[in-house]
Amino acid sequence: MPRRSSHLTCLSRSLAPVDPFFAICQALGIGIAVGALAGTAGLEGSARGGMTLLAAAVGLVAGVLSASADDQSVLAGALPGLLGAAVACAVISGVVAGAARRGGGGSGALGFMVSIAALVVAGVSILLPPLALLLFAGLVWLAGARRRRAQRKHEGLRVLR
Question: What is the pLDDT of residues 87-96, one digit of tens each?
Answer without folding.
Answer: 999 999 988 8
